[in-house]
Amino acid sequence: MQIDEAYAELNIVQDFIPVGNSNRPGRTLAPKSITIHNTDNTDVGANAAA
Model confidence over 38-48: pLDDT tens digits? Predict the structure, then answer.
């Protein structure tokens, strides 16, 4: 699956650390892959942001 296909078919959420935040490392990354993690957890609060 190509990246444009993934965006079209999957519910992808990008949540980046804003520029200027002290916990943002400040270096450019060149990602080579992604990890899709699904715990199949249906309990209350399972959809909370990490």
Answer: 777 778 877 77
